[in-house]
Design brief:
This protein is of the alpha+beta class and 325 residues long. Strands 1, 4, 5, 6, 7, 8, 9, 12, 13 and 14 form a ten-stranded mixed beta sheet that branches. A two-stranded antiparallel sheet has the order 2-3.
Length: 325
Amino acid sequence: MSFSCRVAGYGHSLPERILTNEELSELVDTSDDWIVERTGIRSRHIAGDADSSSSLGAAAAMNALRVANIDPSEIDLVIAATCTPDGMFPSTASRIQHQIGAECGAFDINAACNGFITAFSSAAQFIHARTANKVLVVGTEVLSRIVDWSDRGTCILFGDGAGAVVLEAGSDDGPGKVFPPFLGSDGGAGNLLYAWGPCASPSEGITEDAKIIMDGPAVFKYAVGAMADAVESALKNADKSPSDITICVPHQANERIIRALMERLGLPMEKAFTNVQSYGNTSSASIPIALSEANSDGRIKPGDLVLFVAFGGGLNWGAVLTEWG
């Protein structure tokens, strides 16, 4: 089962400042070699004082709209995926909707690093239900503001940025299809990767400056298995096999996780698009940023079967296949 729905536009936006591994080694006990060996990351972008999830998201959205040749007034819905919103409310999506000049509904989704897949899947369902024709999906994060810069196990991993796509309904016999997604979660294992928010119970002893906390080895082991299972389910939903996948655009968390996933799927690493070396883990922004770059590099062509797969805090994971149109 599938339905006609295509990515009509894509774009991304990054803060100007680049933080290299060499600079990080001046903050914590680490080195470029140590970071690259364990993660594949060489640098990441860091938000400036004037940057926010909404401002970065709006810039990415405008880039996607330009590629799609669509005016903001044509957008029927804005969905923003973020775990670092500008505030409790209004939603980051509403802020983006206003900044780009759209006149439509808007709401946020927080599924951490699986946020983009969750938002993309939700947008596709709105189109499938014929309640929207064009949906703007934005993944945007300023993770540097919730990173503990004294913890070398986490501060080396995360970066800031935004990516966006425009999803558009098509005719039944037109190009582009989105297949039913697979989404999973295990809230009972949420203690492996989490960040407390301002509304946490005082009994937990939470302070205002609580940061990202992660059990790296446990997350690595859980992530590879969960993502592989998600891909298997998404392939079953689409009546496809791993060999049908043209390109995998995975969540850019860690190069070792991506390599382990591709090995589990029996696919060559050449089929995975990676840019984690330049941006680190940008959570819900990582897949749309990678998708934007992969298209700009000519890696994706009409008719290609593209796989999105992610894993993140929650714990949350998911996979969705789309036939590029």
